[in-house]
Amino acid sequence: MSDHDLTGAVWHKSSRSSGGNNCVEVCDNLPDIVAVRDTKNRDGGTLLFEHESWTGFIDDVKAGKFDR
């Protein structure tokens, strides 16, 4: 998954980020992948996930599976 073209990526932050730079940005408008990057280091690398994997992760977060 490392050779994906991110041209046209539309990035957004969580509505819970309070407008700060201490969060991640997500791009989910690309056909094959969901991309994630650090807001304060946008050129520092991008994590890429298949849509199904990303959706599963978000479902687990909402279900509290990672709550401490």
Report on the architecture of this protein.
With 68 residues, this protein is of the alpha+beta class. It has one domain. 18% of the residues lie in helices and 25% in strands. It contains 1 helix and 4 strands; from the N terminus they run ββββα. The chain has one helix at 51-62; strands spanning 11-13, 24-27, 33-38, 47-50. Strands 1-2-3-4 form a 4-stranded antiparallel β-sheet. The mean pLDDT is 88.
What proportion of the residues form beta strands (DSSP E)? Answer: 25-35%
Kindly report the spatial arrangement of strands forming the biggest sheet: 1-2-3-4
H and E string: EEEEH
- State the major sheet: 4 strands, antiparallel
- Helix/strand structural class: alpha+beta
Total individual domains: 1
First-to-last CA distance: 31 Å
Instruction: Provide the helix percentage.
Output: 10-25%
Label the overall shape: globular
Low-confidence parts lasting 5 or more residues at pLDDT below 50?
none
Please describe the structure with a list of short key phrases separated by commas or semicolons.
68 residues, alpha+beta, four-stranded antiparallel β-sheet, 1 helix, 18% helix, globular
In short:
The chain has 68 residues and is of the alpha+beta class. The chain has one helix at residues 51-62, and strands at 11-13, 24-27, 33-38, 47-50.
Topology at a glance:
Layout: E1 11-13, E2 24-27, E3 33-38, E4 47-50, H1 51-62
Antiparallel strand pairs: 1-2, 2-3, 3-4
